[in-house]
Structures are given as C-alpha cells and as structure tokens.
C-alpha cells in the first residue's frame, strides 16, 4: 500500500496543533519530510513514527508500589 503524503495543515489538524508546530519539526529536522518543488509533504508513516517515538506510557498503579511506614 502506498504511503499518503500530508500537507503541513493536515498534519497540524491530526496533531491538534497550529501549523507552526509541524513547520518547527521540519525546520529542526525532527520529522521526515519530502520536498516537492517548493511544497513540503510529510509521509503518514513518518507522522505515525513520530507519534510512537514521543508517546509516554503510564507507570502503572502507583498505590501498589507505595508502602506505608509502620
């Protein structure tokens, strides 16, 4: 299956941010992107990889790991 190439506006909408954030990711080379002439596109797989790499997993139930002093 071919990868979809997203515009900066589409990436911003999917992330729930303004267009400034994906543009900053591109400027800082923190996400894979493709230049098509003067246009910039982000592969959907690159966006998913970025999200996966920056997803923080919960620690778990902290109550069970805390012990009370006797």
Structure explained in plain terms:
One of its GO terms (molecular function) is DNA binding. It comes from Streptomyces griseorubens. Pfam families: HTH_17. There is one protein chain. Helix content is 43%, strand content 14%. The chain is an alpha+beta fold. It has a three-stranded antiparallel β-sheet. It starts with a strand and ends in a 5-residue tail after the last helix.
SSE map:
Elements: E1 5-6, H1 8-15, H2 20-27, E2 34-36, E3 39-43, H3 44-53, H4 62-65
Antiparallel strand pairs: 1-3, 2-3
GO molecular function: DNA binding
Organism: Streptomyces griseorubens
Keywords: DNA-binding
Provide a compact summary of the structure.
InterPro entries: DNA-bd_dom_put_sf, HTH_17, SinI_DNA-bd. Helix content is 43%, strand content 14%.
Keyphrases for this structure?
three-stranded antiparallel β-sheet; single chain; 70 residues; DNA-binding; HTH_17; alpha+beta
Helical residue percent? 40-55%
Strand order of the largest sheet: 1-3-2
Work out the helix count. 4
Show unreliable segments.
none
Tell me how many strands there are.
3
N-to-C CA distance: 60 Å
Taking all residues together, what is the mean pLDDT? 91
Derived structural class: alpha+beta
* SSE succession: EHHEEHH
Radius of gyration: 18 Å
Q: Give the amount of beta strand, in percent.
A: 5-15%
Described by strand count, sense and barrel closure, the largest sheet is: 3 strands, antiparallel
Quick one: overall form? elongated
Domain Helix-turn-helix: 5-54
Organism: Streptomyces griseorubens
Pfam family, one: HTH_17
Keywords: DNA-binding
């Amino acid at each position: 299956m071919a990868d979809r190439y997203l515009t900066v506006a589409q990436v911003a909408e999917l992330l729930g941010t303004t267009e400034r954030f994906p543009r900053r990711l591109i400027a800082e080379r923190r996400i894979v992107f493709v230049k098509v002439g003067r246009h910039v596109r982000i592969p959907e797989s690159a966006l998913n990889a970025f999200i996966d790499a920056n997803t923080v997993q919960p620690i778990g139930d902290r109550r069970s790991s805390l012990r009370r002093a006797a």
